[in-house]
Design brief:
Length: about 325
């Protein structure tokens, strides 16, 4: 109940943050400031979708790999999705496409890139006995993706470079209603697949042998985790840029708040807490004029460092 109240308050604050002070009528009727009100509504909606998607993706990956540091940013999913978007932005300048199709190809490129990486990650997970090696592998992939993006930026023309930099800042005010519609469809697909994974993940948490005795299809669970986490994280990355560390930090907080063994409740808690944090960060970004991904990094890096120090002392 406290989280629900907090979410509602954060949404109201986010709607009222900006250069102009809007009236209640601006949101429901045609006024001089109705277009600004529409932009703020879009900002709230896209933060709501991001708050649902990124923590859910991190929650699924952490429960599957049984590692609190697993997440779409650390495992390289966000970096490869960014690399795919960079390829699309830099090489599609001469394409003449409607805006709706451009947005679709933007999201498709990010999702395909993240799916390919997740397939590689799961292939390596079968070879490594210690799944913590996947964290190192994710860092290497992120570094490689960053290097390739730097090469593309070096040879890109000015307009392409400007478009990519603006996208990478995580501008939450530039998402249109058509983009929100596409993002909503992809997120709903990812949430449906996530719903299908929770029960098998409960069995998987008890051990591979026990899960198989319960009739859990581990191969099917892998595929569901791949597709669901990739859809959720890559779709948000496509439209908002790389939102870092939220997929790690929010599940960590949720395990501190409530029983970590109850995965259904943990999933719901992740979504509500994710919405609350993303709405707050959106308001902070609007007030401070800092890019959204900078704020999430400034918040996430100290929390992850504290997690590492806590585990070291334990």
């Amino acid at each position: 109940m406290l989280l629900i109240i907090g979410v509602l308050i954060s949404i109201i604050i986010n709607l009222n943050v900006g250069f102009l002070k809007l009236n209640f009528s601006d949101f429901f009727s045609e006024t001089q400031n109705s277009q600004i009100a529409e932009l703020r509504i879009n900002r709230v909606l896209v933060m709501l979708l991001a708050g649902i998607s990124i923590p859910t993706s991190g929650f699924l990956l952490q429960e599957y790999f049984q590692n609190p540091l697993a997440g779409p940013s650390v495992l390289g999913i966000t970096s490869v999705a960014s690399l795919s978007v960079a390829f699309y932005i830099f090489f599609s300048q001469n394409w003449t496409l409607p805006e709706f199709l451009q947005n679709s190809f933007l999201s498709i490129s990010a999702i395909v890139g993240s799916l390919l990486l997740m397939l590689v990650l799961l292939a390596f997970s079968n070879r490594f006995q210690d799944k913590s090696f996947l964290i190192i592998f994710g860092f290497l992939v992120s570094a490689l993706a960053g290097a390739i993006v730097s090469i593309l930026q070096f040879y890109a023309d000015n307009q392409s470079l400007k478009n990519y930099i603006l996208w990478s800042f995580g501008a939450n005010n530039s998402v249109s209603r058509n983009q929100i519609f596409i993002l909503t469809v992809i997120v709903l697909m990812g949430l449906f697949l996530s719903f299908k994974t929770i029960k098998p993940l409960i069995g998987n948490a008890l051990g591979t042998s026990y899960a198989q005795s319960l009739g859990v299809n581990l191969s099917a669970l892998k595929i569901l985790i791949i597709v669901a986490s990739s859809l959720l994280s890559a779709s948000v990355t496509a439209f908002l840029g790389p939102i870092l560390f939220i997929g790690i930090v929010v599940p960590h907080f949720c395990r501190m708040i409530y029983n970590p063994a109850k995965l259904w409740q943990q999933w719901i808690l992740n979504m509500f807490l994710g919405i609350l944090i993303m709405e707050i960060f959106s308001s902070v970004s609007e007030i401070s004029q800092f890019p959204l991904n900078v704020i999430t990094s400034l918040f996430g890096i100290p929390v992850i460092l504290m997690m590492l120090l806590k585990n070291k002392t334990a």
